[in-house]
């Protein structure tokens, strides 16, 4: 049984698989193509990624791959928690530059589906947070793009954690959305 909820931008969904708990612990089908298909989610994932962030307040993103290597992403947290964000980067879209965000956590056991045509990023809310995600195309370094996480034109309300944020060099110097040809059109 799969709970699927729209998050307010086309195709961006919260997905929550069932967790079977007993005295030993729990079991969960974290990915089941046929159950996703029942919710008209017909995607073929080809690569699994995992990232570990040591510190609370680590920001990864906003990232996306331009066509022809755009990636749909199914993201979940197996340790800790993150504030996860998707931004519509499809030129001509009525919701271009708009964002949705939600907290993903190992406790909540929820996932987010971020379709291609959206930039993706997250901020960790706890130390030692581990994120796992499935993608529908292989990593293509020459198609890898970034947009500044705090671009005022997007205006993401990142959680105030009372300290600085931890970012990669690449993310610190990422261009603004209006400086970026995202390659996606509505
Ligand atoms: C994404 C990726 C990266 N790499 C190599 C390239 C770099 O040498 C190293 C770290 O890459 P990066 O700094 O881009 O990793 P993150 O900042 O965690 O980026 C990811 O996090 C945000 C939230 C995303 O949505 C993307 O999936 C992805 O860009 O791993 C690979 O070898 N394969 C890959 O698929």
TrEMBL record:
It is an enzyme of class 5 (isomerase). It catalyses: dTDP-4-dehydro-6-deoxy-alpha-D-glucose = dTDP-4-dehydro-beta-L-rhamnose. This is dTDP-4-dehydrorhamnose 3,5-epimerase. It comes from the Bacteria. Its EC number is 5.1.3.13. Homodimer. PANTHER family: DTDP-6-DEOXY-D-GLUCOSE-3,5 EPIMERASE (PTHR21047), THYMIDINE DIPHOSPHO-4-KETO-RHAMNOSE 3,5-EPIMERASE (PTHR21047:SF2). Belongs to the dTDP-4-dehydrorhamnose 3,5-epimerase family. Pathway: Carbohydrate biosynthesis; dTDP-L-rhamnose biosynthesis. It comes from Rhizobium puerariae. GO terms for molecular function: dTDP-4-dehydrorhamnose 3,5-epimerase activity. Keywords: Isomerase. Catalyzes the epimerization of the C3' and C5'positions of dTDP-6-deoxy-D-xylo-4-hexulose, forming dTDP-6-deoxy-L-lyxo-4-hexulose. It holds the Pfam family dTDP_sugar_isom.
């Amino acid at each position: 049984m799969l709970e699927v909820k729209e998050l307010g931008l086309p195709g961006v969904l919260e997905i929550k698989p069932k967790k079977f708990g007993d005295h030993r612990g729990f079991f969960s089908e974290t990915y089941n193509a046929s159950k996703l298909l029942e919710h008209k989610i017909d995607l073929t994932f080809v690569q699994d990624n995992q990232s570990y962030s040591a510190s609370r307040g680590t920001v990864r993103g906003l990232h996306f791959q331009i066509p022809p290597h755009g990636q749909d992403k199914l993201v979940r947290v197996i340790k800790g928690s993150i504030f996860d964000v998707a931004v519509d980067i499809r030129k001509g879209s009525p919701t271009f530059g708009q964002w949705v965000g939600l907290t993903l956590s190992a406790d909540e056991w929820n996932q987010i589906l971020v379709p291609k045509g959206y930039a993706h990023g997250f901020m960790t809310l706890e130390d030692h947070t581990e994120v796992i995600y499935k993608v529908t195309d292989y990593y293509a370094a020459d198609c890898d793009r970034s947009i500044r996480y705090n671009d005022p034109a997007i205006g993401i309300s990142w959680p105030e954690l009372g300290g600085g944020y931890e970012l990669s060099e690449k993310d610190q110097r990422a261009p603004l959305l209006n400086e970026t040809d995202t390659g996606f059109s509505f």
